[in-house]
Amino acid sequence: MIDLPVISEKTETHVQHEVRFPLRKSRRVHIGNVPVGGGAPISVQTMTKTKTSDVDATVKQIIDAADAGCDIVRVTVNDKEAAAAIGEIVRQSPIPVVADIHFNHVFALKALEAGIAKVRLNPGNIGSVDRIRQVLSLAKERKVPIRIGVNSGSLEKDILEKHGYPTAEALYESAMRHVGICEENDFHDIIISVKSTDVRLMIEAYRLIAQRTEYPLHLGVTEAGPTRIGTIKSSVGIGTLLAEGIGDTIRVSLTDDPPKEVEVGKEILRSLGLATRNVELIACPTCGRLDVDLFSITRALEDRLAGMKKPVKIAILGCVVNGPGEASEADIGVACGKGVGILYRKGEVVRRVKEEEIVNAVVEEVEKFQPETN
Ligand code: SF4
Of 99, 166, 109, which is closest to residue 142 (Cα–Cα)? Predict the structure, then answer.
């Protein structure tokens, strides 16, 4: 005798309904074909961890990141070999490539000539007025935005002396020093980041810059750490700001591979209802009422649905207590009983499936699912 969920039972639901966050007004820039700011969907970035001069390894990492849902990828251009390789990387990359450059205006010029889509560069760090003009005028000519990236660990000495230690005002002042140089040169395609390893400081600094400028913001907790701790710190820092309507593009920094950074970034957006083209998987935490192997089912679904670009909400619930209510509120749902699941589509029961068939049945439904267009 199979223990079936009571389908008609009215239960409390934890499925989140659509919530809209107040959105900070920001200027729109384009990183290649990806719009950033001005109400554009929030994009997810990562950075390659290979030697840039190793084109094959770098392109492979970019493709893996793109497959995981990455929108924009950053590559360091830190030596002559990297500057020589960047053109080929841009040619082979399926997503826009950003050049990460510190201090060297020649590398910036080479990367711009090679067709990169954005430069991460602080103009105040590349020397003479003439060098700054050369880089900004080529970026302007090529319609390539510049990200000014300030970190609490690398503030200018005079700013640090003035404020005593890295504060939100110090980060703001440092960022605006570089912004000022761009504005003096009539360059306005700017994105700003004010990162810190200290989550509270990073939140405060982004709030300040969000109140005082209209430039789009790249959010991140810098050097967040290994996967577990880095995921938590990034989720708290980036998530808090996004929930306040602050932030236009995000990068989760983990001591892990780029696809992992992308997965966490996508999950942060998903958790706030800000991911536009992704599968959202809701699952109960399980408890003593459970009569199926829900851990294995959800792990298998996570793997099978990774990278799928479809706005579909899936709920997998372990038993009759919350199962039928939540499963029927998702696009696709499963409410499990003893060795069995009831499959729902848009609140309607589709069929009963055996436990070992649940994963395949859900994947099949997701593949068939036609999202509503409006
Ligand atoms: Fe809730 Fe049932 Fe899952 Fe337990 S098994 S957490 S009661 S849905």
Answer: 109
What's residue 327's pLDDT?
78
Options 3.20.20.20, 3.40.350.10, 3.90.960.10, 1.10.540.10; which CATH number does 29-271 get? 3.20.20.20
What is the dotted CATH code of the domain comprising 279-368?
3.30.413.10
Q: How far is the CA of 272 from the centre of ligand 1 (A)?
A: 23
Distance CA 372, CA 351 (A): 22
* Residue whose CB lies within 8 A of the most ligand 1 atoms, among 6, 9, 15, 284, for a mutation test: 284
Instruction: State whether the beta carbon of 73 lies less than 6 angstroms from ligand 1.
Output: no
Q: How far is the CA of 347 from the centre of ligand 1 (A)?
A: 19
Give tens-digit pLDDT for 145-183.
999 999 988 899 999 999 999 999 999 999 999 999 999
**DSSP state string for 309-337:** ---EEEEEESSTTTHHHHHHHSSEEEEEE
Task: Indicate if 279-368 has the same CATH topology as 29-271.
Answer: no
**How do the domains of the chain map onto residue ranges?**
29-271, 279-368
Q: What are phi and psi of 257, to 5 degrees?
A: -70, 155
Closest protein CA for atom 7 of ligand 1: 321
Residues 6+ apart with CB under 8 A from 37: 26, 27, 28, 29, 191, 215, 216, 217, 248
Ligand 1 pocket check for 247: Cβ under 6 Å: no
Identify the pLDDT of residue 7.
33
pLDDT at 23: 83
**Phi and psi torsions of 137, nearest 5°:** -70, -35
Which residues does the chain have with pLDDT short of 70?
A: 1-21, 276-277, 373-374
